[in-house]
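ingest -> validate -> predict -> emit
validate: passed (alphabet ok, no gaps, 155 aa)
predict: started
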Amino acid sequence: IIGQEISTREGEIIAIFLKKKIQPGLSAEETIKEIKKQSALSYIPHPFDKLRKKRLLDIAAINPDIIEVFNARTLQDKHNDEAKQYALQHNIQAGIGSDAHFPTELGKTYLEMKAFRSKAEFLKNLKQAILHCRKSSFFVHPLTKLKKLQSRLFQ
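emit:
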């Protein structure tokens, strides 16, 4: 799968099954249009995590294919629960993510699904996937801030 995490003016969008890169910095709506032009899938990570600096506030306006209903780095469970409820109420496919920034976070959260050969088969198999959701330690957040600071200082 060729994918990209795209930074929009309002927040992040992940594109899956892309054919070519999409430039960052567009509006969320413009980014979704670019994703659809490529017949790719749009995935909204941590949509209700109010502790993130940038998050998409108007999910309904962009009509994503998938929203993340569990993010291992989301500190407050209610934000993951809110995403799960939204996905159920709006019949949007659910996804999960580890959002790993450190090796110790790999494998905390993952899903098991049948192999697929197409975008349509991917979506079908994702609906039947077995979800394994475990949260990352709280301490990954200050470590991430230190890592970002270090990279800015020593560029």
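The mean pLDDT is 92.
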